[in-house]
TrEMBL record:
SUPFAM superfamilies, per the entry: (Trans)glycosidases, beta-Galactosidase/glucuronidase domain, Galactose-binding domain-like
Residue ranges constituting the Beta-mannosidase-like galactose-binding domain according to the UniProt record: 104-179
Natural source organism: Mucilaginibacter litoreus
UniProt name for this protein: Sugar-binding domain-containing protein
All copies of domain Glycoside hydrolase family 2 immunoglobulin-like beta-sandwich, residue ranges: 217-295
InterPro entries to which the protein is assigned, alphabetical: Beta-gal/glucu_dom_sf (IPR036156), Beta-mannosidase-like_N2 (IPR054593), Galactose-bd-like_sf (IPR008979), GH (IPR017853), GH2_Domain-Containing (IPR051913), Glyco_hydro_2_cat (IPR006103), Ig-like_fold (IPR013783), Ig-like_GH2 (IPR006102)
Family: Belongs to the glycosyl hydrolase 2 family.
Amino acid sequence: MNLSKKSLMLGALCAYASVTYAQTYKQGEVPIPTRWAKVVSPTNALKEYPRPQLVRTNWTNLNGLWSYAITAKDELPTAYSGSILVPYPIESALSGVKKNLQPNQSLWYKRAIVKPNLKAGERVILHFGAVDFEATVYLNGKEITKHQGGYTEFSVDVTDELKSGSNELGVKVWDPTNEGFGPSGKQVLHPENIYYTPSSGIWQTVWMEVVPADHVTSLKIKPDVDHSSVKITVNSNTNVSVSITGAGKTIKGKANSEISLPVTNAHLWSPDDPYLYNLTVKLGSDQIKSYFGMRKIEIKKDKDGIDKIFLNNKFTYNLGTLDQGFWPDGLYTAPTDEALKFDIQAIKAMGFNTIRKHIKVEPARWYYWTDKLGMLVWQDIVNPNQGLPAGAKEEFEKEAKATVVQLYNSPSIVTWVLFNERWGQYDQARLTTWLKQLDPSRIVNGHTGEYLYVNHQLRQPSEQPYINSDIADVHAYPNPMMPMKLPNKALVVGEFGGIGVPVEKHMWDEMKGGWGYDGTKGPLQMQVQYAEMADSLRQLEKLGLTGSIYTQPFDVETELNGLMTYDREIIKLPAAIIRNINSKVWPATKNWPTATKGFSATVADTSDHGYATKLKLYQAGSRDPQLLRELTLMAFNQNDGERAKQLAHEYLQSLKEPVSVTDLRFIFQFTLNSQGQGYPFLVAHVDQLLKVVDSTTVSRKFQKIVFDEMVQPVLTQSPDYEKIDQIIREHPEVSTGEFIIGLSVFKYLQAIAEHEQNALDNFMRFADIYDSRFPGLATYNDWAWAVFQNSDNQKYLEQALSWSKKSLQQSAEADKAGVMDTYANLLYKLGKKQEALEWEAKALAASNGNAEIKANYEKMQKGEKTW
């Protein structure tokens, strides 16, 4: 469809779908909301000016209620579903929607905007803080810009498309999350373990501002401590004169050229004293308010010749913690600016002077608070898709560069972290040098955790460790270790710790509980272990260690490694105790917050809440629903199956409408068959259930029960697909039955391995049915290999070859060698020897000389069987 036709269709659609906008808003439920969630509303959604280092007065905040629709990826909406609160991601409770966006869907937004009153020559700029992942922006039905990259800001001049009065602003979003080619951080479609719920769509502030025809587009600020000056470039759409005022002086110069502003007797910025200079920039009638900090960061040798991190020409141990930036109610988006600030205050109150911002780029105001409050920041570049699909490398490098440019002016950022462990790592030598050239003023950690130890076991060796990096960095769980000593590199522990401490009533998922890297413990055990870790760090510091990053300040979903709970309500040890332990490694900053200065939290209860204690309450007659729920979970974990079954039954009987999020999740967890009250209860409440559990998980739960109880007996008797199809139609809760049919295919795949009669014929039939009904979803390589190993039937082998070809087209770079090996073996078995050899040679090259593939290749050359 060409642009003009598409624009006309969208314009007609906007007029058709709705002229008025729904104004209802209700937050979705979460098990543990933060204290700030209750103040979030359509009238105050992140109302602060979003860009503190380039402030203008004439602006309009576009956060608030927008209309939204979800469609198939390439379809236009025929109606809008209701309201969504921008800028909270659609999966979040604060959005008011709390729905998961799938890779084959598009998310549509729209709202009315009013053209500002403009003086002669003035322009209107529309800004987006961040939209994950691909955003197409429309104004009055016409596409005006498109942006890819879920973590970086973008803007567009909309002046010429605005009409007087009301206009319709629309945004189309596609976000494949971890199935795409762009960086997605720790968001995954099926969250578990160290990966979390996605944040799709608009997740940072949207706003408009009015600017003169000639105006500032951005600033580049480089403090030069050694020469008592700050270098400032005023980027603009014109090369006119500018004036800069800061540090008590006014200097004139030209736009788009570097201007040196003297800063005599500089008041240096540090975590102890985070002094910021105000800055005013004037270009014609455009006036900008900004700020800068005078600080210097480098690696240099101390008096003993050991390479260490120096801040403002003084050794400064970087005592840090690993901050993921997730929120139970807002996911990627903090509920309020006060909440954003609180996290930094909390970390500072615990005695840390450094935050490693892990696999996420925050809104500009987060960096404003680290600048203002005084916190060193190690900023991760968001990793590429770990499978490195086509386009992933190009997108990663584009977004890495945009991240450096976007965050360049923040004095708190002292280190760029290029790669984390082996997450999509490639071209490390080139990219480390490239990043240092992009920003020579900061330290570059080329590969944090290139060496990863868990319980002293090395997970991943490296041939050229930390090549071109300023830092040698080891990850060691749970206890810190000394990284390898390399010339001219500072030594740090990029991750360690992970002591898991569950806190009742403050867990993301009571049914699953949670985990820590070293199991789970109580607060008092944590205190002992944390103190021992600090003692180790102190000894390592004497040997040359210059920084360490503890995992982590806050729990995240089922990861219970936080010093505080996910809802920021409970601190697991008193802040003073954590701060005193940390001070054994490096003194706490002089300006740490207290309860009267922005930081407060309840200390975890250390009294007995064990199974035996609660069982006594139950046996004494208590039938409190919360007690029943907690006891059921404990009985289940204690393998007390019969009691768990009885308790769950009593709990279900105690429920009254409306049921809570916790109720639904609990029943979902403990409904294991269609008998009893659980299954029909879930079917009756499926709409509510889908708001708290993702649709794939819900559907698969229903399908597994139906498969085990109804489909499995049919398959055991005979491969009667028509009867299975009838069962699927009679149970609408299983939707298309994709998982049921997939399980049927898998059953026959297992039967082949067990040499059951007719297993191969039944497998081929059901695999063909599955592939025709659900194209592109099959595990084609597994299917093809099973046929290769177990059949000489020419027709079946040809079918397997076609599956293998599909797998070649779909597979990620990391999986290519095995898929090519399957394809080559099928060609060989079909008698196409020359073509088979060509593909096996490719497989061998892609596998870096895998012994099994090499043996197959040699057999093919000799004409021997490979099966």
